[in-house]
């Protein structure tokens, strides 16, 4: 399989799976992996924002990835986000991910301190060097990381032959077009913002990595199918339904990931735990809205995916 085919498709960002004490639960990680595999997604993106990475230890993240790889059993493309806010731990996670045989590693830029671009490039290249036989994906999410992937920085990173893709979560869809054009033949760009998957695919994205894909993969798989078939109006209808659900899920007191895990408990029988503090967990007043969101997902899948 060519590099671009390995990554072309719908790749849910994997949710953190905790036990009743808030610790990573390997059995629940494997359950979620098998659930997503059964839905027909292309792969999983492990240890990113949806995996609550900045609130997890290196040991937590290693444990999660080990159980994902065990359950995936070579049937899913696995991209492991390995960035920590220091180079040494990021390299440790990169080496560990390569030892498990992941398809790619990924990293956001360092956060908090506003580093010059040459230091960001060095950080990414140092991480890549720790996993020299593994593809590297740049994660561009300026609204959270506080720094954007500029074209000069992108060109500098393209000198590293292991850099094969950008996960682009910036809001301008034009950025996808720019990275595709500059990346050249065979370079992969993922659409990041779930709310604009149709637009991202239309502008040239090879696939999508998204935080709400896991709770309603059927809708995003349908969007990709319709866009590939040139049925843009139908794809937009599904996108609008997905966006309405996202906005409804964001209306709770609890964090979005807590909402989605509860929906998966109600709809799919998956027990994934809550979210790790300081992310806010659900409160009793959230439950009617959560049930409403679950019903919206059922209705949208019934309308568009049957």
Quick structural overview:
By secondary structure, the protein is of the alpha/beta class.
How would you portray this structure in words?
This protein has 306 residues and is of the alpha/beta class. 49% of the residues lie in helices and 12% in strands. The chain is built from 13 helices and 8 strands. The protein has helices at residues 3-7, 26-39, 58-72, 87-100, 117-130, 142-145, 151-157, 174-183, 197-202, 217-228, 232-249, 256-268, 287-304; strands at residues 10-12, 43-46, 77-81, 104-107, 135-140, 163-168, 188-191, 207-210. The chain has an 8-stranded parallel beta sheet. Helix 10 runs antiparallel to helix 11 (232-249) and helix 11 (232-249) runs antiparallel to helix 13 (287-304). The chain is globular, with a radius of gyration of 18 Å. 48% of the residues are buried. The mean pLDDT is 96.
């Amino acid at each position: 399989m060519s590099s671009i085919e390995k990554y072309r498709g719908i790749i849910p960002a994997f949710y953190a799976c905790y036990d009743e004490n808030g610790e990573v639960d390997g059995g629940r990680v494997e359950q979620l992996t098998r659930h997503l595999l059964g839905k027909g997604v292309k792969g999983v993106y492990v240890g990113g924002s949806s995996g609550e990475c900045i609130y997890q230890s290196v040991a937590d993240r290693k444990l999660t990835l080990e159980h994902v790889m065990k359950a995936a059993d070579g049937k899913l493309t696995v991209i492991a986000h390995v960035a920590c806010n220091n180079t040494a731990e990021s390299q440790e996670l990169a080496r560990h991910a390569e030892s498990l045989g992941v398809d790619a590693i990924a990293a956001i830029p360092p956060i908090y301190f506003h580093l010059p671009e040459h230091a960001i490039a060095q950080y990414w290249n140092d991480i890549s060097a720790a996993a020299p036989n593994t593809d590297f994906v740049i994660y561009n999410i300026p609204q959270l990381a506080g720094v954007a992937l500029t074209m000069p920085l992108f060109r500098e990173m393209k000198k590293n032959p292991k850099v094969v893709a950008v996960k682009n979560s910036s809001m301008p869809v034009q950025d996808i077009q720019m990275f595709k054009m500059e990346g050249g033949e065979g370079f992969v760009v993922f659409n990041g913002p779930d709310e604009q998957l149709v637009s991202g695919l239309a502008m040239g994205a090879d696939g999508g990595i998204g935080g709400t894909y896991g709770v309603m993969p059927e809708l995003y798989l349908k969007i990709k199918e319709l866009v590939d078939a040139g049925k843009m109006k139908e794809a937009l209808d599904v996108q609008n339904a997905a966006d309405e659900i996202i906005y409804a899920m964001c209306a709770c007191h609890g964090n979005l990931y807590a909402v989605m895990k509860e929906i998966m408990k109600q709809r799919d029988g998956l027990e994934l735990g809550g979210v790790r503090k300081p992310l806010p967990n659900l409160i009793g007043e959230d439950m009617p809205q959560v049930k409403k969101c679950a019903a919206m997902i059922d209705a949208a899948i019934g309308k568009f995916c049957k």
